[in-house]
Design goal:
By secondary structure, the protein is mostly helical. It folds into two domains: 105 residues, no CATH class; 289 residues, no CATH class. The chain is built from 16 helices and three strands. Strands 1-2-3 form a three-stranded antiparallel β-sheet, covered by helices on one side. α7 runs antiparallel to α8. The C terminus is likely disordered.
Length: 426
């Protein structure tokens, strides 16, 4: 037996751990399959991999034997682009090294326990600016923008606290929406002539599981139907929990959340500014390496502002979202080639501000109103709620399709390739 031979048990262990870390940090099923297979092949084994919503089932094969093993259950998912970049680095370097399971396991240890590059206070301020920017992109007046910044900071601090308590993510989303929404609604009492609706919507928007929803659509349209449907169901339930929290907050503050009403799009120049601020906040939240965060901002500006420009010339939101996501995805491919990291590092922070949270929340509020009214529900409320729900579904699907087309299309660049430009941030 050769000295560098690795046992199937050891390879199965690191491969499953690698796949679990990818899923936990925001990768879609297709990317997990590709990277785990590449890692196992570099260690001398072929793989058959089944990605489930709760974990990974792996079969290893070589000329001597095969082994099937189920990975540990994944209890929760987040989005950590630095972790995905570091995992991609492990795969890229594995073929150039003598197989060393212990070394790979130590690398995975370091990735799993690395934490965020950014201090909590900076992430909170960044998401405060993101919430304020989203309120403005939705057409909010300046008092709403100011209060939304406060709400965004409280929102993130509560999320971090509940995360430490290991609270159920759906329950956590509802409680954060309730608390931050109530603070926002009460703060808006200082501006009696300005409705608080968009402040509440911005508070909920930064809670929306945008990346799982986009991944869910992409997986459902691809070859991972079960995983995609599971993600979508969790995303829909989370959105409903957020809507319920905001509904209760508005009721406690003596306000109502209207279902109807759409603001006119901003001027493209103003949209560029607030799209950049929103994307920058999401880059902090998603732990994008600092030296690459500017690329996320460019992707966000390009995608959202292009959609706004297309809306100005009369194109509907679904088509505009598809085009904007496609362009953001192509830019993400370019930056991924330059920085040698997965394209999703730039794609997701770049498009998540386009997620139709406003439509989804108002559809959820409309559904709660229909439930409360029962058979006496006004036909206008029913029609408006259905229209909002369909719009939210079509826009989310359009974003996912646009990204999928951009990330799958043949694409070559001639950009220079520096040696690990994000390495100092890992």
């Amino acid at each position: 037996m050769p000295a560098d031979w690795t046992s199937p048990g050891d390879v199965a262990h690191v491969s499953l751990r690698f796949g679990r870390l990818m899923l936990r940090n925001g990768a879609d099923a297709a990317l997990v399959q590709a990277r785990v297979s590449t890692l196992a092949r570099s260690l001398g084994y072929d793989t058959q991999l089944l990605v489930l919503a709760e974990g990974v089932l792996l079969t290893l094969e070589d000329e001597h034997s095969f082994r099937t093993k189920l990975g540990h259950t994944i209890s929760g998912m987040a989005v950590n682009m630095s972790a995905l970049a570091a995992l991609d680095d492990v795969v890229r370097k594995a073929p150039t090294m003598v197989p060393d399971i212990s070394a790979i396991d130590r690398q995975l240890d370091a990735i799993e326990h690395a934490g965020s590059h950014y201090p909590r206070w900076l992430v909170a301020i960044g998401m405060g600016l993101t919430a304020a920017s989203l309120a403005r992109l939705f057409g909010g007046a300046w008092p709403v923008v100011a209060v939304s910044a406060l709400v965004g900071i409280v929102n993130v601090l509560l999320r971090q606290l509940f995360g430490e308590w290991l609270l159920n993510p759906i329950v956590s989303a509802a409680l954060v929406a309730l608390a931050s929404g109530l603070i926002g609604a009460l703060a808006m009492k200082a501006f009696p002539d300005t409705p608080p609706t968009l402040c509440l919507v911005a508070a909920g928007m930064i809670l929306v599981p945008g990346v799982p929803l986009i991944n869910g659509v992409r997986e459902t349209l691809g070859s991972h139907l079960g995983t995609g449907i599971s993600r979508l169901m969790i995303g829909v339930i989370t959105v409903l929990a957020i809507a319920f929290g905001l509904f209760v907050a508005a009721g406690l503050a003596g306000d109502t959340l209207p279902v109807g009403g759409n603001a006119a799009p901003l001027a493209v120049s103003e949209d560029l500014l607030f799209s950049a601020l929103a994307a920058g906040g999401f880059a902090l939240l998603f732990n994008v390496p600092a030296r690459a965060s500017w690329a996320c901002i460019i992707c966000g500006m390009a995608g959202h502002s292009l959609r706004t420009a297309l809306e100005h010339i009369g194109l509907n939101l679904a088509v505009g979202s598809l085009v904007g996501a496609f362009v953001a995805g192509l830019l993400a491919r370019f930056f991924a080639h330059y920085f040698k990291v997965p394209a999703v590092t730039f794609a997701f922070p770049g498009v998540v501000a386009m997620i139709p949270g406003s439509y989804a929340f108002r559809a959820g509020v409309g559904g709660l109103g229909i439930m409360h009214a029962g058979a006496a529900a006004p036909p206008a409320l029913i029609g408006e709620t259905i229209g909002l729900a369909v719009t939210a579904i079509l826009m989310t699907a359009a974003i996912a399709i646009g990204l999928s087309l951009a990330l799958a299309a043949p694409f070559m660049t001639t950009a220079p390739q520096p040696s690990n430009p994000t390495g100092a941030q890992r």
